[in-house]
Amino acid sequence: MLLSIVFGILFYLAALILIIGVASHIRRYAKTPAPLVIPTTPAPTTRGGVAARMFREVVFFESLFKGSKWTWLFGWLFHFGMLVVLLRHLRYFTEPVWSWVAMMQWAGVYAGFAMAIGLIGLFVRRLAVDRIRYISAPSDYLMVVLLFVIGGTGLLMKYVWHTDIVALKAFTLGLVTFSWSPLPSDPLLLIHLLLVIVLMLIFPFSKLLHAPGVFFSPTRNMKDTPREHRHIAAWAKKLEANAQRVTSE
Amino acid sequence: MAAPGKQEFTTPALKEYPVIPPIQVNAMAHIKPFVAKPDHQEPLGFPGELVDDWKDVALNKMEELLGKYRSLPVFLDSCVKCGACTDKCHYYLGTADPKNMPVARQDLLRNVYRRYFTFAGKHFPKLVGAVDLTEEVIDDWYKYYHQCSECRRCSVYCPYGIDTAEITMAGREILASIGVGQKYSNEIISKVHKIGNNLGLPEPALADTLEGLEEDIEEDTGVTVKFPLDQKGADVLLVTPSADFFAEPHVDGLMGYAKVFHQAGISWTLSSHASEAANFGIFIGNYENMQKVAMRIREAALELGVKRIIVGECGHAWRVAYSFWNTLIGPFDFLDPNYPAPQHICEFTYDLLKRGALKLRPEENDDKVVTFHDSCNVSRASRMGDMPGGQFVIPREILKAACNHFVDMAPDTIHENTFCCGGGGGLLTDDLVELRVKGALPRMEALQQVIENDGVTHMAAICAICKSQFSKVLPYYGMGMDMIISVHQLVGDALDLGAEA
Predict the structure, then answer these.
(1) Which of A22, A112, A237, B289 could form a disulfide with B281 if both were Cys (CB 3.0 to 4.6 A apart)?
(2) Closest CA to B88 of B469, B477, B442
(3) Which residues in chain B are contacts of A209 at CB distance < 8 A?
(4) pLDDT tens-place string over residues B308-350
(5) Considering only CB atoms, which chain B residues are within 8 Å of A224?
């Protein structure tokens, strides 16, 4: 029971730090003005167009596709593999399991492999291409390793050393409903969960901020209508008010 | 091939297919433009020389900028080091110096940002590559933020749209604010503040030059084409880069604009107060200076009582005019709302062509096979016409109307994929010739290809910096400096001045 208390507390703590950390960054991005109109052109001229551009960017990685086909391939495999895997994990937090989550369980397994292949590809590329090796810090390698071990331990539990899935679900449901039950103590599961906690903890302090960041990128989320609409930031407005200015009167 | 003159460097060989070079650490560490003297710094509001407490001043400035420009915290936090940008910069492709890879250039600032402004960098600097702000770092900033032409090519391919130009501008602004500005840009900005153009050309000299141009055209064609200056009540104020007044091949472009105005019968004027479209304020990333430079144009337009403002062929000037003027010096409620404010000279000419108000004889240019160099700022930081991508269509439509033989260069080197000429962003100075020559390599390779395959004889451009840069670097690659021409030179040469419109 001690184990489940420790993990329970760690999960709550990690979730708290993740939410507060990411929210504070989002708040900062949202609060900081983009004083000049700087979309990378050709850019959409309507809000709908911007939404479509952002959708293509986030779902298809449009710019990355233009930039590097290999990185796009591995990156997309990893991200969408991970998305499906995460959705599949919803079954541990819901009772009864939502029907669409139940229906997609089969896909989650393939997604786990896609995720692993993507990560291996990204890691090899980081090591093998001299340009990317040059720009990599230790944290860049460790991040891939961390994700790979999380995915790898998950796959091992699915295929090789099964854990007590019923007990695990009791534990995870307990986390959600604040009624704790014991956590199975196989090392593989503990490693898996511990590293997920680590990932949650470092998310707001690392490059994983690219996930909220992309939505605030002024080169992607601004409309290309500077002639039609006057765009001015609050601090620039203040400058203007203080300056000697010729007017049309 | 050995370089002409006394510069001790080798011009890169033109390859049949572009090759991504393996990195050569510090290949360009010896390149550094002249530092601004107090005379160039102080009129811009910067300290004359390196301040004693430079480290504190730099970090305070960084904090200020992080709060003023959303691009900075978003771009500095979001990069995942995927490497998609690493082979996109013309300076990397031409020099192989890894610090010229966009992400590595950003990292020079990012690593310091992390050290002082992020939890991970404060507590685990080694792990995330955070570094202290030292004199060596400042030196690297100065070198490598002056090996970026702010062309935004990297931002096209970045999955988060990270634009290294924004980082370079911030880096330069921090440098200038601790007293380490760049001589070339800051000297020019101080001239604009004082006299009104980059060259320091006063009104009488300008009037004299324009008179000479009138005579040239009259001699050439027998037609009197006016170059009005400070003419109150004209319909159009033309603001054009001052290089158009005398540099080759720019001046032929200016004569082309004058012929178009003449033929269309639209009254226009230049202004001696705002005799410069260029705005180097953007290069040094300083909002106040950019605004001050641009404000002369608002003042001139109001003083002269014009109805429209048209901007001549200049890449970064068009970015500032199109994207920033409304913010910096707007609103333009005093201009005729039937026309875009401001309007590009190509939009103006294209509109006249569509309405049949200009008669062109493309056979006048039959001695030429023309290609078009998309200028970086026009392509990736502005627009022409009323649809996205009009900045690619309109100049080409004009060229096709003005000459019978037009071909495009390779698709991955035009439109938004275009390569910078190698001289943009405040780098068009003799102390950076080696960088400029090497940075031109990708464009030269694409040009070489159409010369061999299609017999291209001329490359047209709509940017004063591109024109000057190519005139300088073409000979290094064994090509003629007169290959580079203005779009409006071709228009002017094809224009039938005798025809009734």
Answers:
(1) B289
(2) B442
(3) 77-78
(4) 999 999 999 999 999 999 999 999 999 999 999 999 999 999 9
(5) 383, 388
Q: Nearest Cβ partner of B159 from A63, A122, A140?
A: A63
* Nearest partner of B497 among B265, B220, B214, B221, judged by Cα: B221
Residue B455 burial by CB count (10 A; 0-12/13-18/19+): exposed, middle or buried?
exposed
Which value does ipTM take for this structure? 0.95
* Angle separating helix axes B102-117 and B71-78, nearest 10 degrees: 100
Angstrom distances, CA of residue B3 to CA of A56, A68, B90, B123, B478:
46, 34, 19, 49, 10
Contacts of A206 in chain B (CB under 8 A): 120, 128
Model confidence band, residue B499 (pLDDT cutoffs 50, 70, 90): low
CB B121 within 8 A of CB B465: no
Put simply, the chain B residues between 431 and 490 with a CB less than 8 A from any chain A CB are none
At A71, is the secondary structure helix, strand, or coil? helix
Cβ–Cβ contact B119 with A under 8 A: yes
| Residue percentage of chain A with pLDDT more than 90 | 90
* CA torsion, ordered B425, B427, B428, B433, to nearest 10 deg: -150
Nearest residue to A83 via CA among A113, A108, A54, A51:
A108
Under a CB-based contact definition with an 8 Å cutoff, are residues A42 and A220 in contact? Answer: no
The chain B residue lying nearest A66, using CA atoms, is: B157
| pLDDT tens per residue, range B61-107 | 999 999 999 999 999 999 999 999 999 999 999 999 999 999 999 99
Mean pLDDT of B412-423: 97
Nearest beta carbon to residue B383 from set A41, A126, A207: A41
Chain B residues 35-94 with a CB less than 8 Å from chain A: 66-71, 73-75, 77-88
Fold of domain A2-248:
Fumarate Reductase Cytochrome B subunit (1.20.950)
- Judged by CB atoms closer than 8 Å, whether chains meet at B333 and A38 is answered as no
C-beta atoms of A42 and B299 within 8 A: no
The CB density around residue A92, as the number of other CB atoms within 10 Å, is 18
Touching check for B411 and chain A: CB below 8 Å?
Answer: no
String of DSSP letters for A127-186: HHSHHHHHT--HHHHHHHHHHHHHHHHHHHHHHTS---HHHHHHHHHHHHHT---PPP--
Smallest Cβ–Cβ distance between B327 and the set A66, A206, A230 belongs to: A230
The SS3 assignment for B254 reads helix
**A interface test, pick of B20, B25, B80, B101 with most A CB neighbours within 10 Å:** B80
- Cβ-count burial of B205 within 10 angstroms (0-12 exposed, 13-18 middle, 19+ buried)? middle
User: A94-117 b/e with 16+ CB inside 10 Å = b?
Assistant: eeeeeeebeebeeebeebbebbbe
B262 touches chain A (CB under 8 A): no
CB distance B213 to B220 below 8 Å: no
Q: Token pair for residue B114?
A: 């992390």
Residue B17: count other Cβ atoms within 10 Å of its Cβ.
6
Paired strand residues for B484: B459
Strand B370-372 relative to strand B458-461, pairing: parallel
DSSP B58-123: HHHHHHHHHHH-THHHHHHHH-----TTTTT-HHHHHH--GGGSHHHHHHHHHHHHHHHH-HHHHH
